[in-house]
Amino acid sequence: MTMNKNQKHLHEARKLFLHELTNQLSSMEEHLEHYANEQNLQSAQEFYRIAHTLKGSAPIFGLMAIGKVADLLVREFEWTQMDTRKRLAPDQIGMVNMLIGQLKMEQSFSKEEILHEEKQEEYLLLNKQAYRLLLIDDDDVLRTYLVKRLSQEGYQVEEAANVEEAKQLLREHTFDLITLDLMMPPQSGYEIFDFVRNDMVLKWIPLIVLSGRKDSEDKVRCYRMGADHYVTKPFHFEELEACIYRLLTRTQHYEQMAFRDPLTGVNNRRYFDHQLQVELAQTRRQQEPNSLAFIDIDYFKKINDIYGHHIGDLVLQGLSYKIQQNLRATDLLARYGGEEFVIAFPGTTAEQATMVLERILAQLQQDPVVQLDGQNFHITFSAGVAEWDEMMSKQKWMEQADHAMYEAKRQGRNRVVRAKLNMEEPQNNLDSNKKKRLLLADDDQIIRSILKARLAHPEVDIIEAADGEEALKVMRKNRPHLCILDGIMPKMDGFSLLKIIRQDQNLRKMKVMMLSHRNSEGDIVQGLSLGADDYMSKPFSMVELELRVKRLLHLQ
């Protein structure tokens, strides 16, 4: 399978990282030589900063070996952050030189792997021979052209000049896709529709109509008879080929659109969003109460960091099971993303829904959500409940429940909060009609550029800062809605900056997500206790980061 969009981004980011690594290695050698000759503390601290950046960044791009070697270098120079009187012995400097050599070797290996991936990608793009296409068209010139071009793309292509030839080929061979011309005198392409539609196997084959007729009646008739796409002549070959490839690979997209969350077995977000609209229409008709609840597991990131994702998955499964035990058959539960769940309570007031959620919380305080190898795992959650009223849109209803959930977190977590009418948005009444402002504060330029590309959104303006002091100036000038803050930066580290933010009357309501290689329980607790709204340890998942950012900014 060829690379998808995310894989291509990661591939390009890895190339950029390895290219920049050459400059970083050169700087490390210079700082090490300067320290060895003059015992210069500033050079040692700069060496530590570069090694620390590599340790946090490399695993994000899948370069685990480089990250491990960088971690060894960080440990050798950890003293520069605590005891500035310490000095490295000559044998330690020799060890550091050896580790730098190992980094160069890993860099070389990684570049070879990238070249191999690019060659493999090129091969996969050209190798589409697994797909067999049937072209049905009485225009000899166009049919010959399409057969030639699609064959060059790697497809297996059969052709038919009339309806009877096409039926014969469909009986004798298996095809993955059909292109069909509607007008083939004296017969009509609609005969193929009838032939295919009445066959239990053939009716599932993707079908593209190629027609010189532009009137909507033909298009509507074709779609109703089972066409997957309608292309009007003349057309660009590249567009047709893209359409063909998209239809051939749609199976994987259908799997993504499945209505069940594969981990917990409950409904997924796509199904919930659709079904909530149905529930809302019924609520309007019957004039009955309906309540919505958002649930977010408290400190779930810490569970993953300390115990591993396997335990995190078990916690998600355990909580979803516990919730289901307390719901009625008419209630609608879904995993909304990450550690967040959502429940619709038809025929239920906010007070009644709150009682259900508080009952679940009480059970979680008594009983472990997971028991494994003699160890009990207890959790709590923060929940927000909003009751629908006739003046609310679906979007406003969901926002009210979401805002209530964040209010529960601000009040100390482990609680259920009911939304109040026109509850203030967590961003402290910053103008929601304007674009959201996102500040990326990280001294690693590559990380900033990758995050900027990944988090690009039409409703978001992204600002950058390379150190703590610059970030503070940017905040005071631009008032971001959210700051993604690196834990260790030049001039002022992220934890010190976070403390200033929460003490500043104009900045204290700004959302802050901490990014740091520090994943010990103490560091996570420190970040959250200083007021971070979220905390992610490097290396982190880009997909998970994007979901968390969208949630903090209340983006769709």
Q: Based on helices, strands and strand pairing, what is the structural class?
A: alpha/beta
Major sheet: arrangement of strands: 2-1-3-6-7
- CATH topology assignment of the largest domain: Alpha-Beta Plaits
Mean pLDDT across residues: 86
Note the overall shape: globular
Helix percentage: 40-55%
Q: What's the CATH class label of the largest domain?
A: Alpha Beta
> Low-confidence stretches at least 5 residues in length (pLDDT < 50)?
427-433
Query: Sheet with the most strands?
Result: 5 strands, parallel
The total count of strands amounts to 19
- CATH homologous superfamily (4th level) name of the largest domain: Reverse transcriptase/Diguanylate cyclase domain
Task: Specify Rg, calculated over alpha carbons.
Answer: 29 Å
InterPro entries: CheY-like_superfamily, Diguanylate_Cyclase, GGDEF_dom, HPT_dom_sf, Nucleotide_cyclase, Rev_trsase/Diguanyl_cyclase, Sig_transdc_His_kin_Hpt_dom, Sig_transdc_resp-reg_receiver
Organism: Brevibacillus laterosporus (Bacillus laterosporus)
Domain HPt: 6-113
Protein name: Response regulator
Question: Can you walk through the features of this model?
Answer:
The protein has 556 residues and is α/β, with parallel strands linked by helices. The protein has four domains: 119 residues, Four Helix Bundle (Hemerythrin (Met), subunit A) (Up-down Bundle); 127 residues, Response regulator (Rossmann fold), CATH 3.40.50.2300; 150 residues, Reverse transcriptase/Diguanylate cyclase domain (Alpha-Beta Plaits, 2-Layer Sandwich); 118 residues, Response regulator (Rossmann fold). The chain is 52% helix and 17% strand. Strands 2-1-3-6-7 form a five-stranded parallel sheet, with helices on both faces. Strands 9-10-8-13-14 form a five-stranded mixed sheet, with helices on both faces. About 1% of the residues have low confidence. InterPro entries: CheY-like_superfamily, Diguanylate_Cyclase, GGDEF_dom, HPT_dom_sf, Nucleotide_cyclase, Rev_trsase/Diguanyl_cyclase, Sig_transdc_His_kin_Hpt_dom, Sig_transdc_resp-reg_receiver. Keywords: Phosphoprotein. One of its GO terms (cellular component) is plasma membrane. Pfam families: GGDEF, Hpt, Response_reg.
